[in-house]
Design goal:
The chain has about 250 residues and is of the alpha/beta class. It is built from six helices and eleven strands. It is globular, with a radius of gyration of 21 Å. The chain binds adenosine monophosphate.
């Protein structure tokens, strides 16, 4: 069983992002980049399926500039077998990424496609769902457990009222939630070994996909600054402040 995993290069989650002065987006120049955390969980899930003898091959795919090769190498170091870069310089919105991934799905015919539930830069939470629609595959989003057997994926997902367990007929699309697993630490020897694993590249044109953005970002702004707090001497002063200043009592 082939498993395809989508990995996105994003600003590292430890970085405090800064908005560009003209308000058109986030400044990513000279900022540390890393694999989207939910995608690391997706790669780990796929590699564990391979280690369990359920998957035969894990293929990592990323859409973006040549710098995304670094992200793909990380996926290979975690344990993916080979990687595909879809080389594209412009902005890629979720619909474009879903169409590109569909192009790879058509070529590779994986039984399972695992994506992160959302990219921490655009927070769109759309690509997996769109890919499932385009490929007409069943989907399970926000997976906190995946088991695969007898042509089915059994996926547990946390919902408001508790835990939902879905049975999907393969091929299927699954998106990962934080609780699915804890990705392994990428060791230097594995990073070195990953350099020898195959990484091929293709383009949106070769896949016949128009990646033109459909949405325009009008403005990106910082959240309002929090005003400083104050100390009150006792409870009655606090109650007074809540009544007169905050007007919540
Ligand atoms: P989003 O819908 O943008 O929140 O992204 C959800 C998931 O889709 C991510 O966690 C990735 O698994 C995948 N994805 C989004 N953009 C890309 C990209 N440029 N390259 C590869 N995978 C992506």
């Amino acid at each position: 069983m082939k498993v395809l995993v989508a990995v996105k290069r994003v600003v590292d989650y430890n970085v405090k992002v800064r908005i560009k002065s003209d308000g058109t987006g986030v400044d990513v120049a000279n900022v540390k980049m890393a694999m989207n955390p939910f995608d690391e969980i997706a790669v780990e899930a796929a590699v564990r399926l391979k280690e369990a003898g359920v998957a035969s091959e894990v293929i990592a795919v990323s859409c973006g500039t040549a710098q995304s090769q670094e992200t793909l190498r990380t996926a290979l170091a975690i344990g993916a077998d080979r990687a595909i870069l879809i080389d594209s310089a412009g902005e890629l919105q979720p619909l474009a990424v879903a169409k590109l991934l569909k192009g790879v799905v058509d070529q590779e015919q994986p039984q399972l496609v695992i994506l992160g539930k959302q990219a921490i830069d655009d927070d769109a939470n759309q690509t997996g769902q769109m890919l499932a629609a385009l490929t007409e595959m069943p989907q399970a989003t926000f997976a906190s457990n995946i088991t695969v057997a007898d042509g089915k994926a059994i996926v547990a997902r946390e919902v408001d009222g508790g835990m939902e367990v879905l049975s999907l007929t393969l091929p299927a699309v699954v998106t990962t939630d934080l609780r699915l697993n804890e990705p392994r630490y990428v060791t230097l020897p594995n990073l070195m070994k990953a350099k020898k694993k195959p990484l091929t590249s293709t383009t949106p044109e070769a896949l016949g996909v128009d990646v033109q953005p459909r949405l325009i970002t009008l403005k990106v702004a910082e959240p309002p600054k929090r005003t400083a707090g104050m100390r009150v001497p006792d409870v009655s002063a606090l109650v007074e402040k809540l009544k007169t200043d905050a007007k919540v009592l």
